[in-house]
Amino acid sequence: MNFLDYLVSVDARTALMDRMMRKLGVDRQLKVVPDHEAVGHQDECAIWLDEHQQADDPPDYCRNRDLIARLQHAAGQR
Predict the structure, then answer these.
(1) In the chain, what are the domain boundaries?
(2) Cα separation, 43 vs 38, whole angstroms
(3) 3-class SS at 8?
């Protein structure tokens, strides 16, 4: 499995988790769980992606910020 395949599988699992949490009515509980900011920004992320045609860095709340920075560095963008 290459890295892109891994990311696609993570995305699919994340989508399933989101659907399950919504189906069970616990998605709103993320707001009261400690460290919820690391996982509770799906809506803000979607809006941010829609509003930015191009960007140098992800928003501060992005939990994949470190990974993206490493990928940018590996690609010679930093």
Answers:
(1) 3-74
(2) 13
(3) helix
